[in-house]
Design goal:
Number of domains: 2
Shape: elongated
CATH class of the largest domain: Alpha Beta
Helix content: 10-25%
Strand content: 35-45%
CATH topology of the largest domain: TATA-Binding Protein
Number of helices: 4
Structural class: alpha+beta
């Protein structure tokens, strides 16, 4: 899972490991979460610890936090197109037990992706050479870099592994990773390991 060079185009391979979405529904009244837990399987509700109900569905594989207002948070997805499917499936389950809830409007909030840059990164030098970087190795082993354009956050490990957070579309990740590599190389904080010509 690294980058490779074909012609003038930098191709970086990455893996989407989680997608977080929210859904707002049209609802008549409020959801009785206690009733839902009694009539639908694969749900948990502990109001003393958290105000939302947890529903797990298998196809697509997802976990939903459902609130009495009808708002939902959907996590555990691997494809953005699955967010609407998961929301609609949850709505369908609640409709089947008598709740007047419909039309979930889904918004992608965060796509989390991982990749390897095939280069070592000196994180101590990185904090000096680049702006918007925080590195506290006694707290967390990665540097946290807040890229301004496009607006995403990278966790950068000394091994060259990266985690990209905050993108709402995959095209943002496609844009951000090559920019990151260019910035790292220009800052002279990298040493290529497996691939000798990433750029």
């Amino acid at each position: 899972m690294g980058g490779n060079h074909r012609g003038d185009k930098l191709e970086i391979s990455y893996k989407v490991v989680n997608i977080v979405a929210t859904a707002i529904t049209e609802i008549d009244g409020a959801l009785d979460l206690n009733q839902i837990i009694q009539k639908i399987s694969n749900v948990e509700y502990h109001p003393d610890r958290f105000p939302g109900l947890i529903m797990r569905i298998e196809n697509p594989h997802a976990t939903l936090l459902i609130f009495s207002s009808g708002k939902m948070v959907i996590t555990g997805l691997k494809k953005t197109t699955d967010a609407s499917l998961a929301a609609q499936q949850a709505v369908g389950k609640m409709q089947n037990i008598g709740f007047k809830i419909k039309n979930p409007k889904v918004t992608i909030q965060n796509i989390v992706a991982t990749s390897s840059l095939n280069m070592n990164v000196d994180l101590n030098v990185l904090t000096i050479m680049m702006d918007n970087v925080m590195y506290e190795p006694e707290v967390f082993p990665a540097a946290i870099y807040k890229m301004q354009v496009p607006k995403v956050v990278f966790l950068i490990f000394s091994s060259g592994k990266i985690v990209c957070l905050g993108a709402k579309e995959k095209s943002i990740i496609d844009e951000a990773i090559p920019i990151l590599i260019k910035q790292l190389r220009e800052s002279e904080v990298t040493e290529v390991t497996e691939v000798t010509d990433l750029l």
